[in-house]
């Protein structure tokens, strides 16, 4: 979430007034701020939700799900790939077999940057067979897609190389991400300077959890949320439970965001975040009701902007 236009205008006016009152140039706040090559753009919530609507339509047209090995998964991947190809990405579809069915990872490289310093952002694209998987994990997949599209719109040219990924068969046990890591060429693992994971970032009764694996990545996310006045907690139930795990096992610095699954929100958490104590963060977790109605817009918006902030911060 970014300052509204009016808030930014007020800030600018305040600066101008200060300059008038002091009769000269007020110390330019920017001069004392760390030099920043570029600031991350706002990620439009409406654009992220438009992707969710597409994924919902795909699930509805394909038996109600987007699960591994089913038509709905491949249609989801084709949708995302088409948007990335049109935006100038170099895309690769990695095929694998799991539980007797064909699965696919989608990898998108933004041309340029130092190939020896790769910043990755990823999310699993598959749902469970029992539902459309809009929060789990259309939310992460759509936010990663819209951030990649924002990089293209900005024609962002960071020092490091940017790579985005959508994993298959996470629900079968991190199969797609593990397949990718296991097939990285020798030396390529150490070229990945960060892997950022986004799995369930729009839960209807949200918490704001930050992975505590790599301190620098954790700080980056916490700095963002501190900047918008939102308290966070460390993600404690996630070890090994999503696609960051294979990267962490390979020695890659990892981090990520999470808004909660079937665990109930405590009274203390409801006091700081709002929502309903005693109710699951996502009571439609792995259920047929995980539809576009199963999203908290504020959480999705905040996490999408935090995603972009971290991508810009860690790649510049
Ligand atoms: N494994 C994820 C959901 C999940 C459960 N706990 C965490 C912690 C951190 C990230 C994700 C999760 C899934 O069902 O896809
Ligand atoms: Zn799941
Ligand atoms: Zn998930």
Notes on the structure:
By secondary structure, this protein is of the alpha/beta class. The protein has a single domain (9-16, 29-315), classed as Aminopeptidase (3-Layer(aba) Sandwich), CATH 3.40.630.10. It has helices at 5-22, 29-32, 45-61, 71-86, 134-154, 175-182, 188-191, 215-227, 244-249, 267-273, 297-315; strands at 90-98, 101-110, 114-124, 160-167, 192-198, 209-210, 233-234, 254-258. Helix 5 packs across helix 11 (297-315). Mean pLDDT is 91; it is low at 1-37. D-tryptophan binds at residues 136-137, 170-171, 199-200, 235, 237-238, 241-242, 258, 261.
Compute the CA-based radius of gyration: 20 Å
Q: How many separate structural domains? A: 1
Number of helices: 11
Ions, cofactors and other bound molecules: D-tryptophan, zinc ion
- Terminus-to-terminus distance: 21 Å
Percent range for β-strand residues: 15-25%
Biggest beta sheet summary: 8 strands, mixed
- What is the total tally of β strands? 8
Strands in their spatial order, largest beta sheet: 1-2-4-3-5-8-6-7
Helix content: 40-55%
- The CATH topology name reads Aminopeptidase
Fill in the keyword field for this structure.
316 residues, disordered N terminus, 42% helix, Aminopeptidase, 17% strand, alpha/beta, binds zinc ion, single chain, binds D-tryptophan
């Amino acid at each position: 979430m970014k300052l509204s236009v009016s808030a930014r205008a007020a800030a600018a006016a305040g600066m101008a007034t200060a300059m008038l009152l002091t009769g000269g140039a007020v110390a330019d706040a920017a001069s004392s701020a760390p030099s920043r090559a570029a600031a991350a753009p706002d990620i439009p919530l409406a654009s992220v939700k438009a992707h969710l609507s597409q994924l919902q339509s795909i699930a509805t047209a394909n038996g109600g799900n987007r699960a591994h090995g089913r038509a709905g998964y491949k249609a989801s991947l084709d949708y995302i790939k088409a948007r990335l190809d049109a935006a100038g990405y170099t895309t690769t579809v990695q095929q694998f077999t799991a539980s007797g069915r064909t699965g696919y990872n989608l990898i998108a490289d933004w041309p340029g940057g130092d190939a020896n310093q790769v910043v990755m952002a990823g999310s699993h694209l598959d749902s469970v067979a029992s539902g459309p998987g809009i929060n789990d994990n259309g939310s992460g997949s759509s936010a990663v897609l819209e951030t990649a599209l924002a990089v293209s719109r900005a024609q962002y040219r960071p020092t490091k190389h940017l790579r985005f990924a959508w994993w298959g068969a996470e629900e079968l046990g991190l199969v797609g991400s593990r397949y990718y890591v296991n097939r990285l060429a020798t030396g390529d693992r150490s070229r990945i300077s960060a892997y950022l994971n986004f799995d369930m970032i729009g839960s209807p009764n949200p918490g704001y959890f930050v992975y505590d694996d790599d301190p620098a990545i954790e700080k980056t996310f916490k700095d963002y949320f501190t900047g918008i006045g939102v308290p966070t907690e460390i993600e404690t139930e996630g070890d090994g439970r999503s696609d960051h795990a294979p990267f962490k096992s390979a020695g890659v610095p990892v981090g990520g965001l999470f808004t909660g699954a079937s665990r109930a929100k405590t009274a203390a958490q409801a006091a700081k975040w709002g929502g309903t104590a005693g109710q699951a963060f996502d009571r439609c977790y792995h259920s047929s009701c995980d539809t576009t109605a199963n999203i908290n817009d504020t959480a999705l918006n905040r996490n999408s902007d935090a995603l972009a902030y971290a991508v810009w911060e860690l790649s510049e």
